[in-house]
Task: inverse folding
C-alpha cells in the first residue's frame, strides 16, 4: 500500500497578540495510505479540526510539511493552489445547517464545484448534480429546493454529494455525524462507507464517538492538546490502549450494555484539558496523567513503536 | 404498597405554529420511585424534553398548551402554570439541569449569587447564609477553590465546571427529584464520565430520584434503573434497564440498538439504520407512529394505535405484535423483515 498523504512535523499556532500563542497542533507526523480510513479522536480543543483544515490548506502551516503523493503542498495557499489541489482534496463539514448556503438551491450547491473548476459546462454540471443526488439517496427532483427544506441527515447527504462530485481522492470528514440522531447516523455512515469502497476514497474521519470511529476506521489516531499521542490499527488501540490518555478516553466511553456498565469501575480522571496557550515543555498530558513521572514534565515524548502491530505511542512509559 | 414519588399520567402537550398545531406529547404516562433513576430515551423531536418542561411549568403558553393530563409529586398536582402551589412544589422539591450550561446561566450574575438565589426565594435564607451555603454546594460538586470560584462569572468557567455549577444550583434546595435534560450531550467523554459519577454520588448521598433525558444509550446503560423509550410523542416501551436492553420488545428499540456499533470485539454486526424519518406531528398517523418505518408492520398497525401491552413484569411495549392474542407474538423480536 502506498502513502497518499505524508505529514511531517506539522505545526499550526494561532497568534493571539500580546505574546500569546495558541498551540493548536504541534509537531505532528503520520502517513495516510491510499484507500485507508484513519479515525481521528480527541476532546474538543485537542486540535482535530485544525489538523484537518491545515491539511487541506484552509489554514496556513506554521511549520512542517504535507506531501500529497510526493508533491510538497504549499505552506500558504494562493487561489491558484486551491484550483490545483481542491479538486483532489475535499471536506465534509460537521454542521449540515451552517455549511450549506441558504440562498442557493441544492442543485446550485452541488454543481458549483465542477463549474468553478471548469470540469463541466453548466448543463453537464446540472446533470451530474442530479446523478449525485440519486447516489446519496435523494431524488434528482430535489435540485430546485433550498437547504431549509431538508432534514439534518438529508443535508449531510447534500454535503457529501457536494464534496464527492469533484471526484476527490482524499476527503476530510469533520465530525460528519455528530449533529445527527442515532438512526440517521447509521444511514450516513453506511453511505460514506459504500462510497469510500466504490470510489476508492482515502478518508480522515474526525469524530468524538469512539465506537463509531472503531466501526468505520482502519486505524485510529488520538490527539490531546495539539499533539498526537497514539496511532495504530483500530482494534489494537481500542481494546488495548497504551497511552494513559487513550486508556482514560476509552474507559470513559459508555457502552450500551447495562451489565458491563454496572461492572465498570469509575474511570473518570480529575481535571480538564488545559489551555493550549503557551504550552510548556514536556508531555501535554502530564498534569492529569495518573502515571506521570518527573521526566514527563521536562521532556516532550515522541511517537515510537511499542509492539509489532505498527502502533505508535508518545509516552515515556514505553 | 408505596406510592411513587412522581406520577405522570396521560400528558398531552401541543404547540400552535404558523404551520398548524404540533402535537408534541400525545399521552405520556410514567412514574419515578424515590431514589431511583428513570431514563427517558428518544431522538430529537420525540417529545422527551417537552414532557419534563411541561411538568416544570417551562412551556411558554402561548404558543404551547397542556391539553390533558396530570403530574403528581407525592400525590400533589404540579401541572398548570397558574397554580401558586405548583410553583412552590416545583421550585423547592424538583431541581433541573439543562443541556447547554452556558446559555442556561445568567452571564451578568456571579456563580455564587446564582446558586444562592433559590435559597433566598424558597428557603428564606439571609443573604450571608445563602452565600456561605453556595460555597458549600460548590464544594459538594467538587469545584476546587470554591470560595474564589463563587465570585466568578459564567464566562470564566469551562463547560464541565458550568455543568457542575448548575448541578449545585439544582440541588441547593435539597430536591427529592432532579431532572437532567441531556446533561452531558455538550461535553467531552472524559468530562461526561466526571459529571455522571458526580450525579450518581450525589444521588447516593441525598437519596434523590433522577429523571435523565438523553439520546445516548450508553449513558442510559450506565445510569438508569428504569427506561422509557419515546417515539413521536409517546412512550413506546418501558421497563427495567435490563428488560429494555436485553429483552427489547418494541421494533423501534430493537432498531435503535442495531443502528449503533457494538463494542464487542467478537461480534461486529453491520450497522442497520432505521430507514425513513419520524412522522410529521402536525398530523400524526392514525395508527402506530412507527408503522411506516417498521419491518414488522401489519395491517392493523396502519389503522389503530397500539396500547401499551405487558410483555413481562413491569415491562410494556406499545406494539400490536405484543397483543396477547397476536398470532405473530414473537418470543424474541428480531430485526428481520415481515412476518409470514
Result:
Amino acid at each position: 500500500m502506498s502513502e497518499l498523504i505524508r505529514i511531517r512535523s506539522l505545526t499550526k499556532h494561532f497568534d493571539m497578540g500580546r505574546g500569546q500563542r495558541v498551540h493548536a497542533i504541534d509537531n505532528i507526523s503520520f502517513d495516510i495510505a491510499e484507500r485507508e480510513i484513519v479515525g481521528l479522536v480527541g476532546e474538543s480543543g485537542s486540535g482535530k479540526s485544525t489538523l484537518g483544515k491545515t491539511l487541506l490548506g484552509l489554514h496556513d502551516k506554521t511549520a512542517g510539511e504535507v506531501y500529497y503523493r510526493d508533491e510538497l503542498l504549499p505552506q500558504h495557499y494562493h487561489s491558484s493552489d486551491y484550483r490545483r489541489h481542491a479538486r483532489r482534496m475535499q471536506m465534509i463539514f460537521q454542521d449540515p445547517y451552517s455549511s450549506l448556503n441558504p440562498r442557493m438551491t441544492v442543485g446550485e450547491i452541488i454543481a458549483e464545484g465542477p463549474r468553478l473548476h471548469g470540469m463541466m459546462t453548466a448543463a453537464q454540471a446540472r446533470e451530474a448534480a442530479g446523478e449525485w443526488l440519486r447516489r446519496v439517496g435523494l431524488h434528482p427532483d430535489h435540485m430546485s429546493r433550498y437547504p431549509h427544506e431538508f432534514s439534518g441527515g438529508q443535508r449531510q447527504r447534500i454535503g457529501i454529494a457536494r464534496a464527492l462530485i469533484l471526484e476527490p481522492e482524499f476527503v476530510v470528514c469533520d465530525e460528519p455525524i455528530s449533529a445527527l440522531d442515532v438512526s440517521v447516523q447509521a444511514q450516513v455512515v453506511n453511505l460514506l462507507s459504500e462510497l469510500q469502497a466504490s470510489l476508492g476514497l482515502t478518508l480522515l474521519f474526525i469524530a468524538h464517538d469512539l465506537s463509531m470511529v472503531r466501526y468505520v476506521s482502519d486505524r485510529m489516531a488520538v490527539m490531546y492538546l495539539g499533539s498526537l499521542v497514539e496511532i495504530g490499527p483500530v482494534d489494537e488501540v481500542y481494546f488495548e490502549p497504551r497511552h494513559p490518555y487513550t486508556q482514560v478516553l476509552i474507559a470513559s466511553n459508555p457502552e450500551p450494555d447495562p451489565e458491563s456498565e454496572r461492572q465498570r469501575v469509575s474511570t473518570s480522571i480529575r481535571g480538564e484539558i488545559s489551555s493550549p496557550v503557551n504550552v510548556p515543555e514536556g508531555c501535554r498530558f502530564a498534569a492529569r496523567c495518573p502515571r506521570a513521572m518527573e521526566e514527563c514534565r521536562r521532556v516532550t515524548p515522541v511517537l515510537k513503536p511499542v509492539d509489532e502491530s505498527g502502533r505508535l505511542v508518545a509516552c515515556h512509559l514505553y | 404498597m408505596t406510592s411513587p414519588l412522581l406520577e405522570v399520567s396521560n400528558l398531552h402537550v401541543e404547540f400552535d405554529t404558523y404551520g398548524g398545531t404540533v402535537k408534541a406529547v400525545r399521552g405520556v404516562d410514567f412514574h419515578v420511585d424515590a431514589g431511583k433513576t428513570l431514563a427517558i430515551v428518544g431522538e430529537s423531536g420525540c417529545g422527551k424534553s417537552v414532557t419534563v418542561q411541561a411538568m416544570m411549568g417551562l412551556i411558554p403558553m402561548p404558543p404551547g398548551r397542556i391539553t390533558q393530563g396530570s403530574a403528581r409529586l407525592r400525590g400533589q398536582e404540579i401541572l398548570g402554570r397558574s397554580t401558586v402551589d405548583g410553583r412552590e412544589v416545583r421550585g423547592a422539591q424538583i431541581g433541573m439541569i439543562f443541556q447547554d450550561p452556558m446559555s442556561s446561566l445568567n452571564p451578568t450574575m456571579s456563580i455564587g449569587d446564582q446558586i444562592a438565589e433559590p435559597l433566598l426565594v424558597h428557603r428564606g435564607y439571609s443573604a450571608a447564609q445563602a452565600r456561605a451555603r453556595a460555597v458549600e454546594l460548590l464544594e459538594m460538586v467538587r469545584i476546587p477553590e470554591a470560595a474564589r470560584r463563587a465570585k466568578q462569572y459564567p464566562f470564566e468557567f469551562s463547560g464541565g465546571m458550568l455543568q457542575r455549577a448548575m448541578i449545585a444550583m439544582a440541588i441547593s434546595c435539597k430536591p427529592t427529584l432532579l431532572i437532567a435534560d441531556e446533561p452531558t450531550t455538550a461535553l467531552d467523554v472524559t468530562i461526561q464520565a466526571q459529571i455522571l459519577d458526580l450525579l450518581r454520588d450525589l444521588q447516593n448521598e441525598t437519596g434523590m430520584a433522577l429523571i435523565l433525558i438523553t439520546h445516548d444509550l450508553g449513558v442510559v446503560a450506565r445510569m438508569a434503573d428504569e427506561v422509557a423509550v419515546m417515539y413521536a410523542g409517546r412512550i413506546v416501551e418501558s421497563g427495567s434497564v435490563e428488560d429494555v436492553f436485553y429483552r427489547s420488545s418494541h421494533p423501534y428499540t430493537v432498531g435503535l440498538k442495531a443502528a449503533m456499533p457494538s463494542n464487542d470485539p467478537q461480534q461486529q454486526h453491520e450497522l442497520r439504520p432505521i430507514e425513513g424519518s419520524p412522522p410529521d406531528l402536525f398530523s400524526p398517523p392514525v395508527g402506530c407512529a412507527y408503522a411506516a418505518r417498521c419491518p414488522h408492520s401489519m395491517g392493523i398497525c396502519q389503522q389503530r394505535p397500539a396500547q401499551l401491552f405487558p410483555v413481562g413484569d413491569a415491562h410494556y411495549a406499545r406494539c400490536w405484535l405484543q397483543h396477547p392474542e397476536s398470532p405473530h407474538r414473537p418470543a424474541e423480536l428480531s430485526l428481520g423483515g415481515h412476518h409470514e
Observations:
- The radius of gyration of chain B is 21 Å.
- The interface with chain A takes residues 43-44, 158, 160-161, 188-194, 196-197, 215-222, 224, 241-242, 245-246, 255-257, 259-263, 265, 268, 271-275, 277 of chain B (CB under 8 Å).
